[in-house]
Amino acid sequence: MRQQNGRSFGRRLAVATLGVAAGALLAGCSAGQITQTDTQLAAVNGGGATAGQLSVNNAAFAYPEDDQRVWLEGSDVPLTMTIVNNGESSDELSSISTPISRDVVIDGDTTIRAHKALTIDGGTAEAPNPPGGEIAAGEVGTATATLRNINRDLFPGQVVTVTLTFADAGTVDLRVPIESPDEPRTAEPHSESDSAH
């Protein structure tokens, strides 16, 4: 009986050793290979916060449109977000400030009416419905916000603090990322020597 247990243990040890060796061999063989995810970008969720009856959603900097993929120092950078008013009275976006720009310009509607929303991007993006009601078509105010003459380069992946000041709800700080590009990045060509074993 003891001999049988010894043989059984020896077999299990040999199988485990072979399994570890095979795993190491496969891991080494895949090094340098092109993967399915090499052209995919990680999703970037916009910043969000609440201030009293207001809910700020999807705050983000637009992705740079040029080939440099960076907002260079001195650039004017668009800021987007949606502000939903869940309360019974209107409020107003008084100002936006950030350490990377001394001049943030807001153009358009700055009032966030009760049970309605304000979209900061100049478009017609849909806003989430407030509790206990629905935002009907045409009830979403729109505006644009631009950081003028930023004082340092701004790269994708960076997060910048932005402060919103409201007439009634006071101030709220947001951590705002740069949006991902609409198109996936293209894979760089790999030479045969990169993938040869």
TrEMBL record:
Record keywords: Signal
InterPro entries documented for this protein: LpqE-like (IPR007410), PCuAC_sf (IPR036182)
Keyword Transmembrane helix set for record: no
Highest taxon, organism lineage: Bacteria
Keyword Secreted belongs to the record: no
Region of interest: Disordered: 175-197
Sequence ranges of Basic and acidic residues compositional bias: 182-197
Annotated signal sequence range: 1-27
Protein name: Copper(I)-binding protein
Organism: Haloechinothrix salitolerans
